[in-house]
């Protein structure tokens, strides 16, 4: 198959969408498929790869501080590029400029389009109040999704949310995956652990919690700090490491300072993906209070590093966290405090939950993701355009 992936972000940026799309590209190419990428130009990236087409962008941000933008698509150039590569199927990973370019191209060239819903945009009103106007955003989404053969939902939560907006479109659930060999390409040595702890002022006796992701309000990073503060007041060796960057960074630093706990909350800023697993390796528990996730790659990463997971109860975590087996799904922020305290001092449970996380993470490999997507592409091409309804079959990818 000849496949085109469309996204409104690109390397050297780092986020779950880029990771998922590029892992998919590499996995499909290993299986003998031809894959091209259509994305935006990002400062710091240079390439003459004939299989990558980049368009200029209007810079936005959404708190990432990495250069996210709205792609300015030259539709004629795009259509010519897709024709030259004899594309059989388009896969859009974005609802914005590049995504609309993919929509128009699919209609013009009369080829099927698959769309993945990576983000719950209605949770991001802090970045644009327009996202909170449901009729406006949902009307925009319906326009974007029109003509899609099937929507790929990374989780039950994404499927439940978006099928209320566009019930006329078939859905298939394809969970995200991580390339374990790449993620752990550089083994973490005992010396590495010592150096990282030294770098961030962490001691051997510290009990380390970790959060990895955008440091923004939609992730409820402030609520997470509030859940941990009572524990830090009782035990100065409890530390929470925030890995990532975002608009709430300075606010959190000030909050930690206001309660005299500056040394208990560590902020790493942006960290290269190849180094993140080392930070997981020094940690005892992955914690998150976010309720805006779809299917978070960071929790998969944490599980692959053998971390117990504690999160607010949400559909996005249901297949990642098996309650009381590899972590806890809690109903309130106060319950999160109690469960962290219960687990952090229980060496037997920490060891048992760690082993279970490693086992559960095996379901979420890049290989599994690629295999399911390959199967879906073949079904879409076979059923397009007259038998699209067959794509509703819940056992389609079994």
Description:
The protein is an alpha/beta fold. It has two domains: 2-177 and 365-392, Rossmann fold (3-Layer(aba) Sandwich); 181-364, Glycogen Phosphorylase B (Rossmann fold). It is built from 14 helices and 15 strands. It has helices at residues 16-30, 75-84, 97-109, 134-145, 156-163, 180-183, 190-199, 221-234, 249-258, 273-281, 297-304, 333-344, 347-361, 366-383; strands at residues 2-6, 34-40, 52-55, 57-59, 69-71, 89-92, 113-116, 150-153, 171-173, 207-212, 238-243, 265-269, 285-288, 309-312, 327-330. The strands form three sheets. The protein has a seven-stranded parallel sheet with strand order 3-2-1-6-7-8-9, with helices on both faces. β6 (89-92), α3 and β7 (113-116) form a beta-alpha-beta unit. α11 (297-304) packs across α13. It starts with a strand and ends in a 15-residue tail after the last helix. The mean pLDDT is 91.
Short note summarizing the structure:
The chain has 14 helices and 15 strands.
**CATH homologous superfamily label of the largest domain:** Glycogen Phosphorylase B
Quaternary organisation? single chain
CATH class of the largest domain: Alpha Beta
- What series of H and E elements makes up the topology? EHEEEEHEHEHEHEHHEHEHEHEHEEHHH
What is the count of β-strands? 15
Largest sheet: 7 strands, parallel
From the spread of the alpha carbons, the general shape counts as: globular
Q: What's the number of structural domains?
A: 2
Strand content: 15-25%
> How large, in whole angstroms, is the Cα Rg?
21 Å
